[in-house]
Amino acid sequence: MLDGSSVQSQAPLPRHVAIVMDGNGRWAKKRFMPRFFGHKAGVDSLVKTVLACADRGIDYLTVYAFSSENWKRPTEEVSGLMGLVLVAVAKYLTKLADQGVRIRIVGDRTEVSDKLRAAWEHAESLTQNNTRITLSVCFNYGGRWDVVQACRQAIRDGVPPDELDEARLNGYMALAHTPDPDLFIRTGGEVRISNFLLWQAAYSELVFTDCLWPEFGVAELDSALAEYARRDRRFGGVKDSVPEARRA
Ligand code: IPE
Ligand code: IPE
Ligand code: MG
Questions:
Q1: Domain of residue 234, residue span
Q2: How far apart are CA 149 and CA 145, in angstroms?
Q3: Which of 19, 26, 76 to mutate to test the pocket of ligand 1 (most atoms within 8 A of CB)?
Q4: Model confidence over 19-56: pLDDT tens digits?
């Protein structure tokens, strides 16, 4: 027999979760360690979060790993982060691939080294047929960069101005392979977007937590999902579109 009450009590699950993984440096500082130590711990946190999202049935996870503005950091930190990508791919790619994760790298690849580009391409091609969850890693990514690169591409393709509507432009955006994020989480206590998903987060539910990224785990993910389930999404409409007078 169909148990209607249990169906009704199922919390709405976001199809797409986006995360600004912030707070690595402060986490390391609290431990009197160099910032790199925090970034390294952040990679472990990311892998745990990807698998936890997959277990919960989330289809898309998009994370902010390196922003267009993060080049402003000391050269040593920037090169440490680039090197960490290679280490992370070597350490975790097989595991993620085996777990059904499809990996996509999103951002401007022209400014990274050939070695890094090759590692990205390897990760993408190895996992391209996986379907359990899509992990998009935003690296050398900025929301403003994305809007500009999409417009440039549309112009290059000769799209007539009158035909360039929201759907058409969206097809040129770097996250065209995903639906818009339903839930946008930022760890690390700052309450700002920092140039992440400016186009795609138009109607995302925003959750900010003081938890520093290396400390983010299953409990924090579940608490963000519970918060999401309590939100009332209206997308500019009203909760119940049937006018009062027409309700029996
Ligand atoms: C986020 O952590 C990771 C990157 C930006 C690469 P931070 O490095 O910004 O850590 P905090 O914010 O300084 O603590
Ligand atoms: C945002 O964090 C970028 C990433 C998490 C990759 P930042 O630490 O760079 O953001 P701000 O400088 O505090 O706004
Ligand atoms: Mg930060």
A1: 16-238
A2: 6
A3: 26
A4: 999 999 999 999 999 999 999 999 999 999 999 999 99
